[in-house]
What we know:
With 1024 residues, the chain is of the alpha/beta class.
Amino acid sequence: MSFKKLNDITGWIIFAVATVVYAMTAEQTASFWDCGEFIAVSYKLMVPHPPGAPLFLLVGRLFSMLAMGDGLQVGYWVNMVSVLSSSFTILFMFWSITLLGRKLVGPPEATDGTYSLAQQLTLLGASTIGSLAYTFSDSFWFSAAEAEVYGMSSFFTAFVVWAMLKWETLEDAVDENKWLLLIAYMMGLSIGVHLLNLVTLPAMGLVYYFKKYKTPTFLGIVATLLMSLVIIAVIMEGIIPGLPTLAGKLEVMFVNSFGLPFGSGIILFIALCLGGLVYGIRYSLDHGKTILHTALMSLVFILIGYSSYSLILIRSNANPPIDENNPEDIISFVSYLRREQYGDRPLFFGRTFKSERLETVYGDSVFRKGKNRYESYDIKMTMAYKDNMLLPRIYSQTDDHAKLYQSWLNLPQDKDYRPGMGDNLKFLFTYQMGHMYFRYFLWNFAGRDGDDKEAAWLLPWSPSDAPEEIGKNRARDNFYMLPLILGLIGMFYQLKKDEKGFSFVGMLFVLTGVALVVYMNSPPTEPRERDYIYVGSYYAFAIWIGLGVIAVADALKKLVKSAVARPIIAAALCAIVPLLMGVKGWDNHNRHGRFHSVDQARNTLASCAPNAILFTGGDNDTFPLWYVQEVEGFRTDVRVIVLSYFNTDWYIDQMRRKVYKSEPLPFSLEWENYKSGKNDVVYIDPQANEDRALNLKKYLGYVKTNNPAIMRPYGDNEMLTISPSRLFTVPVDSAGVIAKGIIPKGMESRVLKQLTFGLRKGSSTFYKSDLMILDLIANFNWDRPIYFNNTSAATTAIDVRDYLFMEGMAYRLLPVRARGQGGMGEVSTTVMDENLKKFQFRGFDNPNVYHDEEYRKFAANERNAFFRLALQFYEDGNDQKAKEVLDYSLKSIPDASIAYDYYMPQYVRLYYFLGETEKAKQIAETMGKRAEDNLKFVVDNKLINYSYADRAQLWLYTVNQLQDIYTSLATREQETITQLRQTPQINQEGDTKKINEAEARLKFNKERASHFNAVLEKYYPAVQ
């Protein structure tokens, strides 16, 4: 069998292995973060968050059809897009290692000019070990199991790397050009998924240079890299947003200046582009300009691939339910591509977090489509600062970021201190490169401490005697640096044997790693770990792992005489690397049986009354809800409103449309009142009377008519809306509200005649989203339920917490003043008890199912919801129902599968009050021992650092709560004993027995309180 055929067959076998691994461990439904959104918008071809991923959506739509109309299976089949994309990545990686390895094993040794058996075994062993190591690498495996763009993006990266290495082996010029056009086309397609693929261009430029110039020079290499960077800039700025931007400028000019109809400028622009390309290609053919012809044809193929973005424009004009940013015309489409809603980060020169603002710099006008022309509604503004520096890293001026910069850099608290370039570079190397890249890199090739956010990496000699909670975290995988060592061996071996090949892989490693770190310019905190960004870097290092097998085989020459035996022994020895990674990584990458990302969304929607309006806060609050409604068709009568989107005119417009069973929202304000640039921020009059409340409907009437009474001049020609008070009132038809049947039984007498609420204390402004919430409250007339989830209720500037009632995983706004119960809102026991019966907790009671930190957070929130219902039953005197709720909670979310969390000390206290002493003791002792063991471990091993700081605080909190519980219980028992001793029947046998039992309980409670107090005294100083 020829080596080519053997290479092909082995590659496909490894592909099959990867496919089986990923398919067996893939999520069966929508995971957290962006996955729910991507599955939903793929299923119905809608518009996701900028800059979109249209090619991923098209492929996802095809795969969703395999569900055969079963909405419950759609998530799984869209996840399979990542599964197959990732396994194809492994396939092309296998063949890439083979191509690179040929330069290390030397020329063919067989007499017929083919590779000898020993050489073939060496190459196949190297490719197998390297590709399997990447198969089981932590970050890549994670992305392969869910519906995210990174698996498909990795496929395009792997393909173009393989194609360029394949191109290097070609000798016919015509074939070379064909392969270059294929590479260009694949890069164009990749734009419709993710831009990571473009970063590989400088590395591929080196391959081109080394082949075309047999004697490379330093200046030649520099020129090649610079030209590659220019090509990246042309694609990223000149083509992706650049062409639509030029089209937009021409469109505005033709419509506004020449009075032509909409679309005339775009038609001319398209004609000019096509005409220019046709002319250039004909010219290059007629004059024999081969390089020009190849460049123009490559541009054509890139544009053909890029054309997938037409999906965004087409589907946005169809007004689907999910239509983020509403990019219906060329102007909004450019803003969508440029991700303008996310702002920007300074890269080469800019401010520090303590820089003072000097002035506002005004730029170009911002247009939007009007009735007959494009109207200017805003001006692009940037701020000029003092104390700017090169390569600004510590730039963010939000309050919490400034504190984190000071913490990371250990800066003096002097308010006059100005950070310098040394501080800036220190943050670059310690946080951005160290914490946000090399920590991730070592997760993959050395070992990972766990799945908690900020988790550290492990050394071979990291403590192995970790307590249960830390040591049995399924993501705690120690690879003993074996993958790292083998990769370093391969790296140095390639440097010694093949400098050109090393420069290619090394450039790939740097560009997708360290260079990307510099470009991303991460702030001092992220909502989640970002290791998936740098998988291209891990891909390059895994190539070195494969080449390390060749190095080991070469090193065996002195020990093993048989040329055939050497690669077999080397591969057998090195196989421990992917085997170790696969075995240790399986349990924390196997998502089979995990459903709560979807169940919590269902539980939230099930908490809402029919035709409800539900406010949410962030991604994990919202995207699973979209998935459940759009894909599974569950509770489409509920209108979900994302607070952060509610600040935009396009989103408010969408809320005014009927969607499925959800009627339009009853706003009184018109588009002129909430259009972009109008009422973005409403300021509170500094002279406002803190005790004076405005009639909300009357105030909104002023806002609607731009009444001079609430307008103040701003700048040269602008008028801003102000609020004369931070308090508002809304009259309530109490009899009418009661008649609607929305008031929980027994609360009818508490219905108010008027609601009075306002801004949170300390607020001097509120935003457009808050204004629209006020509009809803003023006009919905209690005909439609309004709900807030935890995040939205805690973050909106409008403080309605006094009128919120907990009905499950959502809080309903009612014209009744809530009574305090130690949490947000009051619990509607009857409604919530009925809603809990609808809840699902699939997989939470199965210890074999892996639930990572994000799932554990939601489990904690739901345990807290159970507790609050039980506490309300207890306070209402219904002890039996309180016990049933707590018991049901522990049955649905047992400690064996989801370990007790920071809410559980509340269970201990309530179980004691309910007379369930043994259950209370069991929970308390389990939690107390874990917290104490964990604190001892991290303190004794000096692990109180960034990765353990937050967790150590939670363990201290748990101990403190238990100490407080036992102290209060001891006080309670002492009072019981005193009361018994003062009764006339003290000498009766029954009372003596009660006193003895109480004294025993008193002794136990004092001992436990004393014990936990000692733990606090021992570990508190070390943790702080």
